[in-house]
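Pipeline run #58 for the internal structure catalog. This entry was flagged by the ingest filter as a single-chain record with no existing model, so it goes straight to prediction. Upstream metadata was stripped on purpose; only the residue string is passed forward. Reviewer on rotation: M.T. Logging verbosity set to normal.
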Amino acid sequence: MKRARHTAGFLMLFSASSLIAQTGPDSYWVRFSDKEGTPYSIAEPEAFLSPRSIARRQAQGIAIDELDLPVDPSYIGAVLATGDVELVNRSKWFNAITIRTTDELALAAIEALPFVQTVRSTRRAVAPVPAPVDKFSLEAPPAMVQRGGQPEDYGASWTQISMLNGHELHAMEAKGQGMLIGVLDSGFEGTDSLAAFDGLRAREGIVLARDLVAHDGDVYADHWHGRSVLSCMAGILPGFLQGTAPLADYALVRTEEVAYELVIEEDNWVAGAELLDSLGCDVLNTSLGYTTYDDSLQSHAYADLDGATTRISIAAGIASEKGMIPVQSAGNNGWSPWRRISAPADAVEILAVGAVGDQGMHAGFSGFGPSADGRVKPDVMALGAGAIGLRAQGDSIAPLNGTSFSAPILAGLVACLWQLHPERTAHEVMDAVRRSAHLYGTPNDSMGYGIPDFLQAHAWLMQVGMDGHREADELLAYPVPFDDRLVVRMPGGEGQASVQFRDVAGRIALERQARFEGGELRLEGLDALRSGAYLVQVMLGQGSMTVRVMKT
């Protein structure tokens, strides 16, 4: 879960001869110089991208480029032909492969190949080491499960969803239908049998399960962490748990090797992100983070967390450029000497998610920003101290501590929000989420932009034109579309107001008197209005504002 230094001033790359001198290395990153002889063509992307992946690019005006071309298979073949060499993973974005070998002569031959640019060790530790306390999150006291005011379907998970106004998206029947979420993690133990995923399995909602660590084809016997993460998005236990995107489809990829802390785990992640891109995922969730390694020579420094140094962070930024929304846990280093976020939370134009408690305050373990180059990090916050999901044993829910769980809680709602606005780009959706957060005007290093309001993000996307121009400066109305109830929100609004609904011809279809309380004006009994678009004019004091709404 952490990666070697790789900056312009200090490049952690080694020649084959220096690698041979080390003790027992067995895995390497081999980067190639070009793709000039590739049999693949940008003009024929169907050979390496799924129709869904191509459609995602087309919808957002993203060109298919050389990064999309797979690694030249002849280069891979030449490397494997040097001796006893095993192919582990490949990366088209970095034009590289990960190999495993103990053949010293093969290593020297690989470095001598004219199209090999660099060879770098990602060697194993001598023996497994215990996972650090903050590597995976810990269960909170069981008493925290008992919470009041829980709608029956949500149970104890009500707090984490209502904190973000996610239930309002669910009320619009946006529960992730048609969206594809990729989950990169340590394993998904029991997901093929546990009751919380009965509905997911019954509708064949797991479209891919891939192990990029052992390559044994089974992610369901490897570690609990990814499964507990998944439960925050896809789990359903009526009366106890509902995930934030319970009707989305999921692709599950194991990239994390729990017994070690190795740079190869980042390379696994890169391969996984590329796989999920090619599959056509919309949202990526990663509840892993990388700072230091078993081999201290490959550890990161805080200065590396600038979005352009660690390979995993560069790759997360590329994933965003390819039209996906990467959602990344900020890391649990707040109480450790490191204190800061972990890679790839520093990546450019992703959503790095920190953790708060149920009162909306920063959880002390949640990693602090900013990024090393001064950007706001974390981006936003969600419940991560006492978040509800399947516990490590998988037999019941438990309150869980960690940004590992705040990230998927938010990722599921990002998918639901994008479901409501399929015409929007990944960047527009991420921007709306940040803008909706309660500290957007005054971000800080512990909370970033704060806790998002997904209903407000939805309203923002409804009211801001495709050119970025907002049609109403401060007035928001929801739900959109509405039926018999409409809430108009105006920050600072208080007192009696006059409200007019005007149809597309400018005629007054309805007039009401209502009162702003706490910045909100609530209108009930609107079912008599015909379906269609309306302009709602709100007159308060000497001023008036107008917002566009849609009636079902």
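catalog note: Residues 1-24, 141-149 have pLDDT under 50 and may be disordered.
catalog note: DSSP finds 13 helices and 22 strands in the chain.
status: ready for reviewer M.T.
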